Amino acid sequence: MASNRDTHHGLSPVDDRMLSRESWKIFQIMAEFVEGFERLAEISPSVSIFGSSRIKPEHPYYQLAEEIAHELSNAGFSVVSGGGPGIMEAANKGAYEGKSPSVGLNIQLPFEQVGNGYQDIELSFRHFFSRKVMFVKYASAYVVLPGGFGTLDELVEILTLVQTKKSRKIPIILVVSSFWDKLIDWFRTTMVAEGTIDEKDLELITILDDPKKIVNTIFEHYESRDFELSAEEQKIMLEL
Question: Residue 232 and residue 240: Cα distance in Å, rounded?
């Protein structure tokens, strides 16, 4: 009985075409990494800022993000955001009006994501995972404002990488304590209590509301060391 499958590859013609498309996809992914590495290698020190794309300019969170980014930019930090609207736009806007570069790592989505106009350096990604590497690889700190699933995804990603020592330890600062307090309480009363994380893992997180304190906390972290990576950290980040 004749088979409807390709006897040479062991695949149907449809499967074969799909495999070919996926193979070519590898080059697209490589191109995203190469462009990201080349364009972001000189932005150090930098701070990655996260938050909801749905926050409007008149919202206090937007204004707070803009102020934080402006303070960071004037203090010498490049500011990196997701490049879209909401908190991302506020971060880019604050940095754009400051002294240091405003960087947007844009993602192509079926909805929501539209690049904002406050980017000195603008990159576009098709793949979340390559974009996430860029957020981590060059960040001297993470500043996380109120947001949705995407913001939580970035927060948990950096916590996991630092906890497992797959990334160097950097300040991870949550902004707007009233938004985050119950989540941190849940970490403590449920995750720590059940033994799924250690109490010391909570020390990775700092909660602050004042823009100047955020900048000072980042500087305090690097008080006894340089912003540049040590030889050991270079090895860690190379294997990120």
Answer: 13
